[in-house]
Amino acid sequence: MTLTLTDELLAFDREHLWHPYTSMTSPTPVRVVTGAQGCELEVDGRWVVDGMSSWWSAIHGYRHPVLDAALAEQAGRFSHVMFGGLTHEPAVELGRRLVAITPAPLERVFLADSGSVAVEVAMKMVLQYQRGRGRAERSRMLTVLGGYHGDTFDCMSVTDPVGGMHTMWQGLLPDQVFGPQPPSYDASAAEIDAWAGELRALAARHAATLAGIIVEPLLQGAGGMHPYPEACLRVFREIADEHGLLLVFDEIATGFGRTGHLFVSELVTPDIVCVGKALTGGYLTLAAVVTTDEVGRGISASESGVLMHGPTFMGNPLACAVASASIDLLLDGDWKARVDTIGARLTAGLAPLREAPGVVDVRTIGAVGVVQLDHEVDVVPATEAALAAGVWLRPFRDLVYAMPPYVADAAAIDRLVAGIGAAVSAG
Question: Which residues of this UniProt protein bind pyridoxal 5'-phosphate (predicted)?
Answer without folding.
Answer: 115-116, 250, 311-312
